[in-house]
Each structure stands twice: as C-alpha cells, then as structure tokens.
Design goal:
The protein is an alpha+beta fold. It contains 1 helix and 4 strands.
C-alpha cells in the first residue's frame, strides 16, 4: 500500500506567489490544509519557502528546497488523517453508547386501578 498522502498543490498565485496545499479526501473532495509563500530576498538574491496551516501559523522551518516542503506536508496530512479517524471513532463510540442506553432503558408502565 502506498503510504504517501494524496495532496494537490495549486499553481502559484500570479500576484502573491502563494500556493494552496489541499489534501484529497476519500470522496475526492479537496480540503485546504495550508499555504506556501515564497519569500524572496533581493539583497542575497535567494528565496525561501514558508509554510503555514489554515490559521496562518508557520508549521515548518523555512527552506529553499520545495521537495522538503512536499514531504513535510505529506506527514502533516497523515497526522490530520489520524486525528480525523480518532475523532470519528470517538463520535461513533459515543453515539453507540447513547443508542444502547436508549434501547435498554426500561419503560415504566402505570397500572390503572
């Protein structure tokens, strides 16, 4: 089985050079999980890739290698998948617990005299 996360990187925005990173969900919908910005330094004539999550928080160290960013986002996507599975499991577990309590709840019958 392929352990690589399914990701889609958008084309850079012409004005901001921003790349949106989406993970591909099992139903083939795209979910944005982060952004990549290109920080160009004129003085040193170099550029760095800066990665953020959806909240705008920097999640990886800036780097000059886009391949490092891809690998980091693959790991990040896998972590998000694990969190999603755990949350879904807990929600289902709670739903089943409530359902069992509801179905095993004794009914009170009043006797008319």
């Amino acid at each position: 089985m392929n352990d690589r996360a399914k990701l889609k990187f958008s084309s850079p925005d012409p004005e901001t050079q921003e790349v949106i990173v989406n993970r591909i969900l099992p139903d083939n919908k795209l979910e944005p999980i982060g952004k990549i910005y290109l920080d160009y330094n004129i003085e040193t004539n170099s550029s760095m890739y800066i990665s953020t999550n959806n909240k705008g928080e920097e999640i990886f160290l800036p780097t000059t290698d886009f391949t490092d960013i891809e690998r980091s986002f693959e790991k990040y996507s896998n972590e998000l998948n694990e969190i999603s599975y755990i949350e879904e499991y807990e929600n289902r577990k709670l739903s089943i617990k409530h359902l069992r309590q509801w179905t095993t709840k004794p009914t009170i019958r009043l006797i008319n005299r």
